[in-house]
Amino acid sequence: MSLREEGVNDGLSDFKPGLKVDDKIAMGALILLVVSGLYYSLRMIFTPDDVIAEGFPAGEYFDTLNSEESRELGLGTPLPTTVSVTGSLILMYTLWSALVLTDGAKGKWTIMHPSAMAFVAATVTTYVGLVADLARTESDANQMDILTIPLVMLLVLISYFRLKDEGMEDDMTMMGEPEEDNGKFTNALLGIALIVGLLTVAKEILLA
């Protein structure tokens, strides 16, 4: 039996793509997320070797990353497969932003919550690494990544909170039960940032 007979295309004819976000600031944030996400993800998926070469150019510092000690600590240069898989994950978050932009914000908390949590966690771990002097900052590509991560986090959070009035949190549930936010998601984000930060600090101390 084909998936068409099982209803895989149900509702597809009703989907009319277009810019369906009214808030101009949120719209701008989502457009930036989509454009930057496509740039990063497609490069990582289709040309991982070039991405690695830009991020880890030949030199004394990067030669040490391929030492046995660095690899045991998880600090070696990434494999092309790792880069491509990471690009695929970024593409998923990019498509979620595009869906909010083209289908409207109503009920899209289900895809914006994971995005917000992911980039809050990424920002915290990156800057703890900077403080611990373990972050890779030798190449221009490394430095650009460090600047891009918090920018993406801000764009996600701006678009989420700006779109509350357009139904972003409609039908939101918590453990299967209807949930009125009342700031709980904000508190959850702060909790995630704190927990991830503490765990990352503990890890950096153990590795020091």
Walk me through what this model shows:
The chain has 208 residues and is mostly helical. The chain is built from 8 helices and 2 strands. The protein has helices at 24-46, 48-55, 60-65, 68-72, 80-103, 109-131, 140-162, 184-207; strands at residues 173-174, 177-178. Strands 1-2 form a two-stranded antiparallel ribbon. A hairpin with a 2-residue loop joins strand 1 and strand 2. Helix 1 (24-46) packs antiparallel against helix 5. The longest helix is centred in the middle third of the chain and has 24 residues, at 80-103. The mean pLDDT is 86.
Model regions low in confidence, pLDDT < 50 over at least 5 residues = none
CATH topology: de novo design (two linked rop proteins)
**Strands ordered across the widest β-sheet:** 1-2
Order of helices and strands: HHHHHHHEEH
- For the record, the CATH architecture stands as Up-down Bundle
> Could you tell me the mean pLDDT?
86
Approximate strand percentage: under 5%
- What sort of overall outline do the alpha carbons produce when their principal axes are compared? globular
Radius of gyration: 20 Å
Would you report the number of β strands? 2
Total of domains: 1
DSSP summary: helix tally: 8
- How many angstroms does the end-to-end distance come to? 57 Å
Helical fraction equals 55-70%
Largest sheet: 2 strands, antiparallel
What structural category arises from helix and sheet content?
A: mainly alpha
Question: Which CATH class applies here?
Answer: Mainly Alpha
